[in-house]
Automatic annotation (TrEMBL):
CDD domains per record: PRTases_typeI
Superkingdom of the source species: Bacteria
Lineage of the organism: Bacteria, Pseudomonadati, Pseudomonadota, Alphaproteobacteria, Hyphomicrobiales
Gene Ontology MF term list: glycosyltransferase activity
Protein name: Putative amidophosphoribosyltransferase
Family per record: Belongs to the ComF/GntX family.
UniProt keyword annotation of Glycosyltransferase present: yes
Amino acid sequence: MAIVAINPTKIAGLWKSGVALDLHTTSSTPTGYNEFGHMQFDTVRPEIAECLYRLKNKADRSAADPIIETTANYLSRHREKFDCIVPVPPSHQRALQPVIVLAEGIAKILGVPVLSCIATTRPTGQLKNITDPDERKEHVRGLYAIDKVQTRGRKILLFDDLFRSGTTMNAITEVLIDPGQAAVVRALTITKTRSNQ
């Protein structure tokens, strides 16, 4: 087993309860500009966040295993609180979709289904470049559609790799509850940013 150290913290939103397993970074120190004029940083990450960075930014599939095993180990003591995992739809295309790879790996260990019940109604960009909270909410308004046949009466664990402001997860929680008729929605992310920008 490749369990790594985590420091779970609560994340607040429309869900019944939510947890991020650790911070996304512990520090990020500017080190100067590169030859293209972009500021470079010396970034320190918790162990699980370093694995996530390798998975997302380096397409290192082997980095998924410690995340999956650590998350499944953490969730095993809360197993009665959910009966399926719903991954947040990826915001842009990658050859390797980290959220899907992780959700499927975690679900397999825990013996629960992954529901592909959320669709986007239009092309979507990443929210990380939008800092205004009202603009973020407007960006996701009406963005998600739900297949309530899959979600009606379910105890759902909404899953994402990174929690920043909660805008996306709150919008999805809304559609899972109404019109999705989920019995309960809880939230879990691998990491959270130090600020909500």
